[in-house]
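Human:
Take a look at this sequence-structure pair and walk me through the tokens.
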Amino acid sequence: MTVKPKLHVLLCAPRGFCAGVVRAIDAVEEALRIHGAPVYVRHEIVHNKYVVETLKSKGAIFVEELDEVPDTTQPVIFSAHGVPKSIPADAEARNIFAIDATCPLVTKVHREAELHHRQGRQVLLVGHAGHPEVVGTLGQLPSGSIILVQTLDDIATLQPLDENNLAYVTQTTLSVDDTRCMVEALTRRFPQIMGPHREDICYATTNRQEAVKRIAPVVDALLVVGSSNSSNSQRLKEVAERSGCKLARLVLRADDVEWDLFANISSLGITAGASAPEILVEEIMDAFAQRFELSVETVSTADEGVFFPLPRELRQAV
């Protein structure tokens, strides 16, 4: 009988689904329960291929734009990432039954940007171009009223309309450390700039990064369970590398693990992005258990008790 090598696994806590992701997935499932299939969803409800495929199997139809939705009385759900103002307006013009599953913490950023705009400030958005959340936040204000800044160079070369009348907001899924550097650069260059009343980076992003920072320096390798198009999952991998982990990988499922890289490790950290279900963590743990004799320790850095109710249209139906 072959003796398996020993592997000490440090499980990050918190990990996996956040309250906004749970709300968005529950919104699709509840809409399917109440209204039957199909339920249309604009963009991936959350950035996880397993979740999307599971919802497809239950009757959800995913589209990128509203013009892909036929004339229908069935619900159309907007994803957790948020949408530009033009999207609900288009839905209303077509009499589409729209349900907005935008994470409340993203909606908070939208409201802050709108408030600064009403008070006459030009708004700077710290984020990544092309990410659906950034597209949605930029789309809350008229063109020219909000400017995306992605790098320190962007800040250095920025030519605002009035450098004494600025405010900033941030994408909710950024690296905490990167964002701190960006905010410090903004406040150095524009001392009068107004910031959020409360941090825009969401509690789940912050908590998951803190857990990775605790574990990354003391393990041989670290796996982040999540999709490659998930911003918060990508940031977890980067945080692990910056915190001293020599081998950090982002994987969706056990089949994606490059097993030859992990053949000689004796300790492994595992976390999951905020849109990754726990069943995928368990699948990967089982795959390692086939190859190693595991001892498992959970390292917890925060307790999360956040809950967001379903969108209003679904609460009323319930």
